[in-house]
Each structure stands twice: as C-alpha cells, then as structure tokens.
Amino acid sequence: MPRRRILVLVVLGLTLVLxxxxxxxxxxxxxxxxxxxIPVSGDTAPPPGETEMKKVLLFxxxxxxxxxxxxxREIVSGPTVEREARRLVEELINGSRTGLISPIPxxxxxxxxxxxxEGTAVVDFSKEFGDRHPSGTSAEMAxxxxxxxxxxxxxxxxxxVFILVNGNERETLNGHISLAKPFPPASxxxxx
Amino acid sequence: xxxxxxxxxxxxxxxxxxSSLAAQQSVTVRVQVxxxxxxxxxxxxxxxxxxxxxxxxxxxxxxxxxxxxALRLQTAPVSSRLIRSVAWGRREGRQVLTVGLKxxxxxxxxxxxxxxxxxxxxxxEGESAAPPxxxxxxxxxxxxxxxxxxxxxxxxTIVLDPGHGGIEPGAKGRFGALEKDITxxxxxxxxxxxxxxxxxxxIMTRDKDVAVSLENRAALANNNxxxxxxxxxxxxxxxxxxxxSETFFLSLNASDEEVRRLAYFENTQGELEGxxxxxxxxQDVLRMILWDMAQAAHIRQSSRLAELIxxxxxxxxxxxxxxxxxxxxxxxxxxxxxxxxxxxxxxSNPEEERRLVNDEFQNQVAQAIxxxxxxxxxxxxxxxxx
Lengths: 192, 386
What we know:
- The complex is a heterodimer.
- By secondary structure, chain A is an alpha+beta fold.
- In chain A, strand 3 (about 110-115) and strand 4 form a beta hairpin.
- Chain A has helices at about 1-25, 80-95, 130, 135-155; strands spanning about 55-60, 70-75, 110-115, 120-125, 160-165.
- Chain A is about 30% helix and about 20% strand.
- A 3-stranded mixed β-sheet of chain A has the order 3-4-5. A two-stranded antiparallel ribbon of chain A has the order 1-2.
- By secondary structure, chain B is an alpha/beta fold.
- Chain B folds into 2 domains: about 25-125, Immunoglobulin-like; about 145-250 and about 295-380, 3-Layer(aba) Sandwich (Aminopeptidase).
- Chain B has 10 helices and 15 strands.
- In chain B, strands 11-10-12-15-13-14 form a 6-stranded mixed β-sheet, with helices on both faces.
- In chain B, helix 2 (about 180-195) links the parallel strand 10 (about 155-160) and strand 11.
- The N and C termini of chain B lie far apart (about 65 Å).
C-alpha cells in the first residue's frame, strides 16, 4: 500500500512539472502581466555596442486635410519585433517633428506591447492615454488610426491593434470610439 | 482494505461523470423585459417546460421555478417604465425570480406558451385591470403618421440620445461650451418637434444633466422595441480648422471572415430570428453574437437613415458637408434597430462653437434631423411591433 501511495505521488509530481513546463513554453508568445515586463526607461536606449538603426514611417494627422501623413523616423533596430514596435509607439507619443498633429496625449506612457500569434498587437497605455484625451469623434479616430496605421504599416506581423488602458479593456477612448475590439488598419485614411 | 485508496478516486470519477451529465441536461432560462405603450411584458423563456408559481407581495412579484434539470439562468440589463429590478435567488431548493416594481400600485396577468416554453407576465400601472386607452395626438396634422399604417400594438418609439452628461462632458470648446450641454439642448428641441408633428412616442436616454452608461442607452432602445435610435453629438478635433456636419453609422470593425458572417446575419435576419426562437442550447452562441453586435443586422437601414439626415443637414444648416461615415461607436453597437450618430458641428472650431450654443442654430439642427427622419419613415413605414 505505501508503494502505491508513492506511485500516486510521483505521478502527481510529474503532472505538475509538465504543467509548469507547458505554462512557461506558452508564456513565450503571450507573456503574462508581470512588473518585470513593464519597460524600464533604458529599454529604448541603444544597447552599448549595438546601435543599428532602422527607418520607419510614422503616420500623423495634418492641419491641411483629414488624412494621415507619413513622417520618417529612425529607431534602434532589433532584437525582436515587439521591441521595435515599442520604440515606434514611444516615437508616436513623442509626436511629430515636422509640424504635423500629435494625437496621442504626451503624458501617456507605454506600459506594455506584445504581439499574439494571430497578429494582434496588444498595446497597453497608462491611464493618461484616455483621461488626458480631449474627447470628440474626430480626435479619437485620429488617435486610434495614427497608432493602428503606423504599427501595421511598419511591421508585417501586425495585422490589427488592440488598445488597453492601464492594463484593462476600456469601453471607449474618451466617450466615443469603442476600444472593445482590435482595429484593422484603415488605409483609406493615409495620404499618398 | 486494499480497496481504500480506490474509493476517493471512484467517488471523484462518479462526481465528474454526474456533473458532466447534469451539465448536458441543464436548461437555459432567459428573462427579458420589454415596454409596450400600455403595459410592460416580462418573458421567461426556456427550452424545457417549467413549473412556475407566482406570489405577489407589495411592490414585488416572485416567480418560483421548478424543474428536474439544472437551470442556467440568464437576464439582460433591465430598463423599463414599470420594472425596477429582476434578480434570481434560491429558496427551499427552487429558483426564485424576484421582480421588483417601481410602485406597488400595479396589476399583472400571466399566461404561458409552449415550444419554446414561455411564461409571459404583463404588468400594468394602477389597481384596475383595464388598460388605459392608448391616446393618439389629433392636433397638428402629421405629415407622415396619417399615411402610416398604424400597428395594432400601438404607437412606436423613437429613442433620442443626447451624448455624454453628468461627470462626462464630452468635447470642450475654446470658449467653454461643453458637448453634453449642446447635445441635450438639441435633443430636447428635436423631441418637441417630433411630438408636435408625428404620432410617435419619443424617449430620451437622458433629459437632464446626468451620466448614463452607454450600455443603458442601448438597453433603453431595445427594451422599448424602438423603431429608430438617434444619438446627437458635437464633434471635437485636434485640427482647429475642422468644420462641418457629418452623420455616422456603425462600422463593424471586423475581419473579413466576421464581415461575411455578419452579412449573412443581415440577409437572413428574419429567418434566423424565427430559427433561434424555436431552437435551444446550441443556438445560444448565435444569439449571443447577435446581441453583442445587435446593430449588425440593421446596418443597411442605418446607412439609409444617415444619408437622409445628412442631406437635410446640408440643406438647412449651411455647414460644410462631411458626408456619411462609419466608425466603431460603442453606443451604436448594441442597438437592435436602425441607429445613427449625428455630429452636428465642431466644438473645437471657435466659429462653429459660437453657432452650436446659439438657440436658433440648435433649432435648425433639430429641424434638419426631423426632416431626415420624416423622409426615412416615408421610405420604411413602421409595420408595428415584432
């Protein structure tokens, strides 16, 4: 009887180990929320000895028309698409350098960005992204598609963008546009 | 003795088997509340026959449900003239639905139907069982209502939704005008114009400066079986020079595959609803998809309504025509009738802000939306309740 009990314990133990292994393997592409994952300020700084740059196109609204206009920017390249995408979003928060409109509240911080296997970039902003937004249908559309079109244009693995605020789903950006579903890009909004 | 280690495992296995069997046999019970012109109907629907008994105490009615199978209980958010709340509880092994009325001065009539099983309870205000006669306005010859076939179930409802309210101001103008105040002023004016000219019941999602959740705005339209839902807003842009009026309907913001699925729903809606009513359990998923994207089934008519309203805005306002557009508005997504959102003009543009706070301009906006509404009703005369 004790032998049988030991056998049961061994099987249980093995199951646990297997479960843990599976959990961490899966965690590779959909990382669980942890404090360590929140990018520290050094994240976007070029790592010493490796400063290969990459050209990207950011899309900002313009005073001239209702469209999004491209603005070239250089970001540090590699090592992963997620790292590059984070740098791109941080450049979007920093805003235009060529006199276009910067539609993401500058107080916003990028908390997290990851890309699911299905090609959805989940972008988590601090609460200022919604709370400091001026509200209004046009303004909210400009913010959403500045982000969505910039990310999908520069990274082919990103098909759509799902926006979180402060780690949570938010009903609307600031009273109008629903954030309940991922956004596919709207190429009709791009001036070309 | 050697059997003892097996016993817990056997019990566990039996419990698992039993619970999975029970889960398979569980019966879904849905509760819906809908306001009609002279009564409010609560419908309790289930795929299996249920034994029910009703007990009235003061301002509450308790519906006790008995069934050999396990029950899966569902309720939608309630927003009704007479019913305050609906909640499931358990007493002496039976499921009890407690219906809270807003007043204890009510009468009710209950009746059942089968396949699927339905218990319908009609609530009326007042002690007398006789429903008050539905009054129709006879003054001011209505341009449309006269030619409109009057449904036997009574007057249809138009829901007007002044955007924002309370702690949620919406867009702000440079001179301090708030979107919530402008939308309410225009909404009240539009309500008056409709009531003066047409025989529709007009319900406002808010008629004062209060916050109302977007979910409740949609629920109000759905619970009243609304004919149309019109949300009124004033636009805000980062671009100072943005100006003009535009009318939106919902964009589904969906992948190609979802668009195909939704198009299927739109084309086969009547068929599908009949199908759903007769089916059970496995169709729950479909029904949930429909509710989640209730507006998807009405996109075509919503776009028509948007066009007709936009045409009138162009004629009457002298604002720039920004056309009809689609965007994923939370407030439109769950509305189960044709629904549009009117962006009257830009609060972020100082010149238009000045116009938006002007009483005469607000009257013109109300008049333009009203004219669009009239054109729409000529095209799609209401056929009465579902």
